[in-house]
Structure formats: C-alpha cells, structure tokens
Amino acid sequence: MADRSLRGMRLGSQSLQSEEGVTFSPRVTSTYQQADGTTFEVTFAADAEVPQVWESPKSGQEGILLAADGKLTVLEESDAKVPRTHWDMLLERRTRGELEELLNDRLDVLRARKGQQKVGA
Predict the structure, then answer these.
(1) How far apart, in Å, are the Cα atoms of 80 and each of 12, 51, 52, 94?
(2) What DSSP assignment string belongs to 11-48?
(3) Which pLDDT tens digits describe the chain residue by residue (121 residues)?
(4) 64 falls within a domain
(5) Global confidence as pTM
(6) In terms of residue numbers, what domain contains 108?
(7) What is the count of structural domains for the chain?
(8) Smallest Cα–Cα separation from 62: which of 30, 85, 27, 36?
(9) Which of 9, 61, 110, 115 is 20 to 30 A from 100 in CA distance terms?
C-alpha cells in the first residue's frame, strides 16, 4: 500500500529538491520605457550585453533602455538591425532573371495540372 504521507501531495506540483547549496549566476535588472511612458523591468545575466530595445511582455510594445540616471539611452544606428524580407534573401541567392524563370516553370506546371482536372467537378 502507498505511503500515506505522499497521499496529499499532487504529482508535479512541488519540487522535492531544495535550493540549498545552489549558487545563482549574477544578474542585473534593466528598466525600459515605452512610448506612452510606461516602464517595465527585464532581468539579464550580469555578463550579457543588454539590448537597447526590448518588447514588453505585457503590452507587446517596444521599450527603450533607461540609463542609470533614468534618461532614455540614445539608439545607435549601427546597433539597429534592418529586418531582411524573404525577397531580400531570395535576391542574395538568385538573380531576378533566374527567379522569373523559376516562376514561369512553376506556373506552367500548375496550368498543366489545372488543365487535367475535370471541368465541373
């Protein structure tokens, strides 16, 4: 028969391990301010590079890092990454002429397949 002391405990609800002897890594808390003036905090490892922009976990809006004196940090142009689109990535691998040829080939296949389908089905 099962031990009665475990009967009241729910499976997976509590860890049986303690934090005794565990050393946590050093952390820093950074504050970000959204365009509407709302602030939120994010905790990073002390040795991590803290980004100047972070998305709020509650609102989804971007916040700009506040300096220790409470002023907004200035965004550097070199740090801002311009997002690449799928089209940009395609143009890195193929020329526009190659892409047009591939498109025409696929369109021909689709047109041929459509021509084989029964009309009115």
Answers:
(1) 43, 10, 9, 26
(2) TTTS-S---TT--PPPEEEEEEEETTS-EEEEEEETTS
(3) 555 555 555 666 667 777 788 888 899 999 999 999 999 999 999 998 999 899 998 888 999 999 888 888 876 666 557 788 998 899 999 999 999 999 999 999 999 988 876 554 4
(4) yes
(5) 0.48
(6) 86-116
(7) 2
(8) 36
(9) 115
